[in-house]
Amino acid sequence: MEYIQPCHHRFTDRFTGGRPAKFPVSTPLGHRFHRQCVSALIALLALPVLTVSLGATEADEIKELREQIRALEQKLLVIERKQELKAAAAAPAHPKITINDKGFTFASADGASSLRLRGLVQLDSRLFFDDQGITNNAFVLRRARLISEGVLARNFSFQFVTEFGGSAVSILDANLGIAINPALQFKLGRLKVPIGLELLQSDSWTFFNERSIVTNLVPNRDLGITAAGDLLGGRLNYTVGVFNGVADAASTTNTDFDNEKDFVGRIFVSPFKYEAGSAVQGLSFGLSGGYGRQKTAAGRTGGYRTDGQQTFFSYLTTTIADGPTWRISPQLDFRKGPFGVLSEYVLSTVKVRNNATGAKAGLQNRGWQLAAGYVLTGEDSAFAGVVPRTDFSPAADTWGAFEVTGRFANVKIDDVVFPLYASAASNANEASSIGVGLNWYLSKAVAFKVDYYQTGFSFNAAAPAVSTSPALRQDENVFITRFQLGF
């Protein structure tokens, strides 16, 4: 009979007393014992494989759990950001405050409404040479203005300018703007009449301390309504308007001296505005004019002034305007890098009487100017002024920007005016002015300007050898310096 030995040589049972047991294979006990041994052997051989399998499964599960955690973290971050945005939207909006060389600006959080406060102070010194005792040498507070500008609900704007310089406080500008789109914008109230080119330039940024004598021939500020806008991508700007009507060099007194109205229009084109690199990219030119009817003494100018602000022509006090008045002005502006040119011609006509029932005459007064500037430090010349690359700062060894300027201007009075409507003895019938200047821009807001003007006069054939006006007995030679703060 075949016997088997237990699979483990240390196997004992309670019947052998610790000795190795042998069981016949053919007996039931032997079969059972054999199966147990085989099962134990298989289990022992499979244990390493099972361990590896269990280890791999556990690693995969850990990796999967980590991926799930990362996904949950991302979802949590998204939820937190949405909550932050929701809280920000629900939080009360805070206005934006900006303070720089353009003024003090207060704007709503959405930018739809804003208020900007600005100012302009100009302190001049006028020194006349060979003036034969004329006591005009003085310091002058030429301008002292508080300026309020704003926008309401994006499409509505306003401007309010108060002048504290001079002998009395006055309102220069007070108007409301309504913007339909860039091609159509309305302005209503007291504003500049859009005829003279140099007049439309800001007082802070003209080439010279004083506008040329040609500006005598255009109206200044009046009450009215204009419609204006940019067409052709900004290549063409137009303005049309209706005003009460004021005389040359005059501003409205807030009343209309007759029932007539003046109609004005202006077209200004910049055909090469987007031609980058072109020599004429900065060329702009246009035509402006106006037509109306004027009556009474308020309808004719109170006088034309020199660069030194001395009167060189005025009508007799009995002379009144009575009839059509019209003006026309071709104009040009050119900028290329540091070089700039401004030129305009003005023809101003007026019908006058020497008294309420006297003879009537049509007068044509005309003038022109050519002014130029060159920025020595290389900054761009611009109609809106020179912006220095660096502000004046001795500690940083920076000095701002310097510009040299030159100008020639001429105004001729119609000889028909003498002697019935103006005195030949106390008036010139022509003034020719030459000016040179140096502008030092210490910053965008601060400037120091030095100008020298020489103005010569011509007289009607009926004028005496020596004018009765002390200011006209010699050429005007005046040295004007200006310290300016404008923001």
Strand content is 35-45%
How many domain regions? 2
Main sheet overview: 16 strands, antiparallel, barrel
Number of strands: 22
Strand order in space, largest sheet: 5-6-7-8-9-10-11-12-13-16-17-18-19-20-21-22
Q: Give the low-confidence spans.
A: 1-26
What is the topology?
Elements: E1 3-4, E2 23-24, H1 28-90, E3 96-100, E4 103-107, E5 114-129, E6 138-152, E7 156-163, E8 170-181, E9 184-192, H2 197-200, E10 221-231, E11 236-243, E12 262-269, E13 283-296, E14 304-305, E15 311-313, E16 320-336, E17 339-353, E18 360-375, E19 401-412, E20 430-441, E21 446-458, E22 476-486
Q: How would you describe this structure to a colleague?
A:
The chain is mainly beta and 487 residues long. It folds into 2 domains: 3-89; 96-486, Beta Barrel (Porin). Helices cover 14% and strands 44% of the residues. The protein has 2 helices and 22 strands. The chain has helices spanning 28-90, 197-200; strands at 3-4, 23-24, 96-100, 103-107, 114-129, 138-152, 156-163, 170-181, 184-192, 221-231, 236-243, 262-269, 283-296, 304-305, 311-313, 320-336, 339-353, 360-375, 401-412, 430-441, 446-458, 476-486. Strands 5-6-7-8-9-10-11-12-13-16-17-18-19-20-21-22 form a 16-stranded antiparallel beta barrel. Strand 16 (320-336) and strand 17 form a beta hairpin. The chain is elongated, with a radius of gyration of 45 Å. The N and C termini lie far apart (124 Å).
